[in-house]
């Protein structure tokens, strides 16, 4: 009995030790902790890199993370999004609606073959594509001044929408690994990419090699950016031949592009003027 009791005691101790080890291992596998200021960013980044490596992220993308830093301007922009609180008329003026319409008509003529091909393939006419292109970046003239990976990593670290932007960060890393995003890419404050401002996960889901060169280059290829935008709208329910004004079937796809009502209406108004 004494020997049996001693054996049981050893077994119990071993069980406790094993359980403690499992718990410790579980703790180390937990997601990196978010934060609300720059103080914890570097520690979070090192932990995230370990998790990313375990999930199969490649060396190129992991090395790119070392170039990131806490993006203060991104956090400021995230906390101060005011333009969508404007009236429709105010929003149209702020975004230069009439200028987009005027220049958009010219761009439609200059790129007639491209837009005809996109409408044939996706069922989306030129108007809403040009409206989005113009409102997002002035037809590629200004795509932002923030380091894309830093912006996305900062928002993944930030507690406000950490889970959402962690998915975006993994998408950005995949784009870097496959050569569709430069580690030094510059874009908008929330990590939006290219001429029509796709978040990284949407590049993975809807990105199209519109110019046929083997890569999806949302910044330097208008064909890639516009084809990807048409594919996004099609993926959000766009039906060929349908109307896209408020109350019509394809307006729902515009709602998928941006949650702000004034933005949706602006696309519809500008697009209709361009399409004629």
Automatic annotation (TrEMBL):
Coiled coil: none annotated. GO terms for molecular function: peptidoglycan lytic transglycosylase activity. It comes from Paramesorhizobium deserti. Keywords: Signal. GO terms for biological process: peptidoglycan catabolic process. This is Transglycosylase SLT domain-containing protein. Pfam families: SLT_2. Residues 1-31 form the signal peptide. Residues 42-244 form the Transglycosylase SLT domain. It comes from the Bacteria.
